[in-house]
C-alpha cells in the first residue's frame, strides 16, 4: 500500500515590494515528503520557516508555484471539489478562540458541519454522531449545549475543534500549532489525543510545531524546516536523538538544559529573515558554526545518512573538502 499523502517538489514563491523594487521570496523550496496511513508526521522549525505555508497549500488555501500533492496516488487537483476534499482532510488551527465566533453557540458549528456534508439523514442521527465525536475527545453534546466559546477553557475549546474535524471521518488531520495557545498543563492532554486518534482510529496527522518536546513525544517521523527547505527528515528518535544537520542541533540545544555545560557554543551574526531567504547557497550558512566556502555558494543536495535525509554539505560528496570541526560526526 502506498502513502496516504505525497508532497513532491512543492514550492511557493511570494513577490514582495513595489514595482520598482520587487523581491521574489521562495517561502517553500522544493519540499518533498510523504505520510503513511495511521502515522503522525511532524514539520518542525522556527517561525517563518515555511511549514504553515506548506500546510496551506495541502489544504488548498494557497496555490503552489510548482510541485505536486498526491492523495492516495491521485493529484489533489482532482479533489478541488471542496466537499469531496474536506471529507478526506480536515484542519485544526492554532487558536481555538479564533475558530469559533464568540457570538455563536459552539454546538451550532457541529450541526452546520453535519448538514453541509450530509453526514446524517435525521436529527437523531445528527445528535448521535456529534455526541460520539465529542466523547472521542473527552467531551459530550450535553456539556457543550447552549454554551458560547467564552464559557470554555482553551483546552476544552481545542478539543471541541478536533471533534468537529472528526465528524466527516477524515483520513488526515492537519494540526497547525494546535497546543501553542493552550496552557502548559493542558498541552499533553491534547497531544495524547492526537496519538489516540492515530493508534485507535487510524487517523494520520500532519503535526506542525516549533515545540520539539511535543514533537518528540508523539511523532513517528519528523522533518526539520529552515527558510523553506527541509534540512533533515527521518524517524523522530534518530533525528532528535542523534541530529546530523547543524540547524537541528541548534534547535535542540536552544531548549534549556539542567546542565549549563550542555550548550551549543557558537557566535553568529544574524541576518534579517528576508536576507536569509535570498542567500544563494545553504540558507543556514550565515548561522552555521560548521560552514565552509562551498556552503555559501551552492545549495546542498539531499543525502541519506544513518536512516534519515540530511541536506548538508558535511555529508555530501564534497564533505571531505570542508574543514573538520569539533563535534561533527562523520558518516
From TrEMBL:
Alphabetized PROSITE patterns for the sequence? ABC_TRANSPORTER_1 (PS00211), ABC_TRANSPORTER_2 (PS50893)
| CDD domains in the record | ABC_NikE_OppD_transporters (cd03257)
Q: Which domain of life is it from?
A: Bacteria
What Pfam family does this protein match (any one)? oligo_HPY
Q: From the Swiss-Prot or TrEMBL record, give the protein name.
A: ABC transporter ATP-binding protein
- Any one GO molecular function term: ATP binding
Keywords linked to the UniProt accession: ATP-binding, Nucleotide-binding, Transport
Taking every annotated instance into account, which residue ranges of this chain make up the domain ABC transporter? 5-252
Matches recorded under SUPFAM superfamilies: P-loop containing nucleoside triphosphate hydrolases
Amino acid at each position: 500500500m502506498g502513502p496516504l499523502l505525497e508532497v513532491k517538489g512543492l514550492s511557493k514563491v511570494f513577490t514582495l515590494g513595489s514595482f520598482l523594487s520587487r523581491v521574489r521570496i521562495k517561502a517553500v523550496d522544493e519540499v518533498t515528503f510523504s505520510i503513511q496511513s495511521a502515522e503522525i508526521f511532524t514539520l518542525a522549525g522556527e517561525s517563518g520557516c515555511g511549514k504553515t505555508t506548506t500546510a496551506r497549500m495541502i489544504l488548498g488555501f494557497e496555490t503552489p508555484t510548482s510541485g505536486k500533492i498526491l492523495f492516495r496516488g491521485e493529484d489533489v487537483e482532482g479533489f478541488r471539489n471542496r466537499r469531496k476534499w474536506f471529507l478526506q482532510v480536515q484542519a485544526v488551527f492554532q487558536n481555538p478562540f479564533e475558530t469559533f465566533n464568540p457570538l455563536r453557540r459552539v454546538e451550532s458549528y457541529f450541526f452546520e458541519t453535519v448538514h453541509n456534508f450530509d453526514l446524517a439523514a435525521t436529527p437523531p442521527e445528527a445528535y448521535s454522531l456529534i455526541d460520539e465525536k465529542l466523547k472521542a475527545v473527552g467531551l459530550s453534546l450535553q456539556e457543550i449545549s447552549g454554551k458560547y466559546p467564552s464559557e470554555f477553557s482553551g483546552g476544552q475549546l481545542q478539543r471541541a475543534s478536533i471533534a468537529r474535524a472528526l465528524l466527516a471521518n477524515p483520513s488526515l488531520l492537519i494540526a497547525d500549532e494546535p497546543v501553542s495557545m493552550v496552557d502548559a498543563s493542558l498541552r499533553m492532554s491534547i497531544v495524547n489525543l492526537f496519538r489516540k486518534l492515530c493508534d485507535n482510529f487510524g487517523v494520520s496527522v500532519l503535526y506542525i510545531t516549533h515545540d520539539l518536546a511535543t514533537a518528540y513525544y508523539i511523532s513517528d517521523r519528523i522533518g526539520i524546516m529552515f527558510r523553506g527547505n527541509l534540512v533533515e527528515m527521518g524517524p523522530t528518535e534518530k533525528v532528535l536523538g542523534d541530529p546530523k544537520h547543524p540547524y537541528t542541533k541548534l534547535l535542540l540545544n536552544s531548549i534549556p538544559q539542567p546542565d549549563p555545560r550542555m550548550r551549543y557554543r557558537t557566535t553568529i551574526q544574524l541576518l534579517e529573515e528576508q536576507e536569509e531567504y535570498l542567500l544563494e547557497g545553504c540558507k543556514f550558512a550565515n548561522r552555521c558554526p560548521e560552514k565552509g566556502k562551498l556552503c555559501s555558494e551552492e545549495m546542498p543536495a539531499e543525502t541519506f545518512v544513518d536512516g534519515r535525509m540530511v541536506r548538508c554539505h558535511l555529508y555530501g560528496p564534497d564533505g571531505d573538502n570542508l574543514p573538520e570541526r569539533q563535534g561533527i560526526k562523520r558518516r
